[in-house]
What we know:
Layout: E1 4-5, H1 11-16, E2 22-27, H2 32-47, E3 52-57, H3 62-67, E4 75-80, E5 83-89, H4 94-102
Parallel strand pairs: 1-3, 2-3
Antiparallel strand pairs: 2-4, 4-5
Amino acid sequence: MAVIEITDKNFEEEVLHxxxxxxxxxxxxxxxPCKMLSPVIEEISEEDDSIKVGKxxxxxxxxxxxxxxxxxxxxxxxxxxxxxIDQKVGVQxxxxxxxxxxx
Length: 103
């Protein structure tokens, strides 16, 4: 499944009302660690259809950045049943991200 661009307009439908767990990557185009993490996020989205993967550009979506108090990027969040169940800041190895999804 392709990575979905999450905005304040589709957040509720794509994340809060998703019937699948959702992995969110808060990022920015100027962020080098975000660029390092991006291929891992893409790989996870292509390998597992049982999850939804979305990216939130914090410069284009300041409402979501502020709502979730994103202070450092990349920040990864996992939502299940409309609730944020896990969150990590910084570049994470693929195994750690997959473990977040399994919790």
